[in-house]
Amino acid sequence: MAATEEVLCRKQQQQQMGEDSGVARFGAAVVLESDTAARGRRCSNSTCLAVEGVGVAAFKRCGSCRQRFYCSAHCQRTDWTKGHSKECPALKAAAASVDAGGMPVASQQATKNQLEATMATAAAARMAVS
C-alpha cells in the first residue's frame, strides 16, 4: 500500500514540475547515437543517399582500393567518373602500407630487423661464453 502511495506522490510531483515520466533527471549530458551510425555506412557516391541496412542489401567495396563502399554498380561508376579514379591508386597504396592491426608495414620490417639483430648478438654472446 505504501509503494502505491509513493508512486502516486512521484507522479504528482512530476506533473507539478511540468515533467512526464520520460524525462532524464541526471546532471550529465545526454549523448544520443546518431541515426546514421546506428543504421550503417552511407554509399561512397556523394550524390546517393542510400544507407546500408535501410532497405538496401549489404554494400560492395571497390575492388581495387577496398576503401570505398557502394550500394550499386551505377553508384560505383558515377563515383569513378567524379574522381575516385584519381584517388583509388593512392588509397590502395595507403591501405597496402598498413597491416590488419593498423601497424605500418615499414615499422614491422624495422621491428623484425631489430629482433633478428638482437637474436644474432645474443647467439654470438653465448658462443663467446662457451
Automatic annotation (TrEMBL):
Keywords linked to the UniProt accession: Metal-binding, Zinc, Zinc-finger
Stretches assigned to the MYND-type domain: 43-88
InterPro entries for this protein: Znf_MYND
Protein name (database record): MYND-type domain-containing protein
